[in-house]
Design goal:
119 residues; alpha/beta; two-stranded antiparallel ribbon; 8 strands; globular; Immunoreceptor_sig_adapters; BLNK protein; SH2 domain
């Protein structure tokens, strides 16, 4: 169990478009939610959706089978790994999350500040 089901930030029945629309409506830097990933892939079960600087970032959450842990984005050396998705959220409520814009090749960072509920 990733520790997501009882959490206010987990949008269980939400797809990518609904998540992005909800974050654009919130229009607050650091707004976020977690949704199920679009592809039914056990190695990437969830997506962290973050609003910053008038943009929405969809960051894959990977499940690492060998260690039964979770990590953000593509695999990289020295990456942070967490025992649950809830730990990822708690960590990035305290420490900034790096947001990489691959289209414009820019980096920003923000903390997860505002939980967005999808209605």
């Amino acid at each position: 169990d990733a520790g997501v089901y009882s959490k206010a930030w987990y949008a269980a029945t939400c797809d990518r478009k609904m998540a992005e629309d909800a974050l654009y409506r919130s229009n607050k830097d650091g707004s976020f939610l977690i949704r199920k990933s679009s592809g039914q892939d056990s190695r990437q079960p969830y997506t962290l959706v973050v609003f910053y600087n008038r943009r929405v970032y969809n960051i894959p959450i990977r499940f690492i089978e060998s260690t039964r842990q979770y990590a953000l984005g593509r695999e990289k050396s020295g990456e942070e790994r967490f025992d649950s998705v809830a730990e990822i959220v708690e960590n990035h409520q305290r420490t900034s999350l790096v947001l990489i814009d691959s289209q414009n090749n820019t980096k920003d960072s923000t903390k997860l500040k505002h939980i967005v509920r999808v209605s």
